[in-house]
Amino acid sequence: MTIQWFPGHMAKARRQVTEKLKLVDIIIELVDARIPLSSRNPMIDEIINHKPRLVLLNKADMADPNMTQQWIAYFKDKGIVALAVNAQEGKGLTEIVQSCKVILKEKFDRMKAKGMRPRAIRAMIVGIPNVGKSTLINRLAKKNIAKTGNTPGVTKAQQWIKVGKELELLDTPGILWPKFEDEAVGYKLALTGAIKDTILNLQDIAVYGLRFLSTHYPNRLKDRYAFDTISEDVVELFDHIGKKRGCLVSGGHVDYDKTAEVIIRDIRGVQLGPITFDSVVDADSIDEENQESE
Ligand code: G4P
Predict the structure, then answer these.
(1) Which residues contact 36 (CB under 8 A, 6 or more apart)?
(2) Distance, CA 126 to ligand 1 centroid (Å)?
(3) What is the pTM of this model?
């Protein structure tokens, strides 16, 4: 589902997460392991306001494993525990409860010292649309809970889902918006399927994907589309792929929109292998800029 985020929606979504913050001990922030930077809410630090957090790099099955390790190290450097998971297949989920316990150990020790009765850790899952929040909740709950949908503003009674004896999850995840003011972020969200019906031009998205692949994963492009060499000229790339994949219009010309669709489908469907579009180097330079402007 695609949501059009307007300032009113953003404010409401933010308010809903903020209201529920006081109900939980920890925030489980889901990001897409292929775009750990672009799939984060730009105001997440401000919104969760020092609440303990666990970051999950979901869809790790579709991300470049080396880059995933770099991202885990990046978060660790910032004092944040991050885990690579695959909610769809339920991989990496046992570490979630363990990590929450480690992160909250001091708080729970203090509660115990004050003579408070031991209780389960309370958590809320937050993340942008399509990052896998419902899939994860269903997996953790080990049953199929009706999908709540992404519509900001849907209210219903608060319910807790038990995950074993030690964790309780709010049944409705917090839905946050991505950083769409940045064009590159828009392309990455489109290429990973986070936004499907997009206002961005199909050919522009495919060009972004091709350029990224030719810089970072040229051999995958060569293998998939039988290139001898990868031309710098993107039109040549489109012509070659379009002909190979039969995306033609009458007269034998290449249909660029169809070719763009093929390229985007191949990237989203991991036909070009697991790809990570965001690098920790990008994140480091943004962090430095932020520090300088403070
Ligand atoms: P949301 O609640 O955050 O909006 O996301 P949701 O769980 O609906 O997940 C969005 C899509 O991502 C789903 O695919 C889901 O199966 C897929 N997904 C979730 N976690 C993982 C993961 O770890 N690995 C992979 N490969 N896929 C994952 P869908 O319903 O088929 O939708 P779509 O494929 O049409 O996007």
Answers:
(1) 55, 57, 71, 74, 276, 278, 283
(2) 15
(3) 0.92
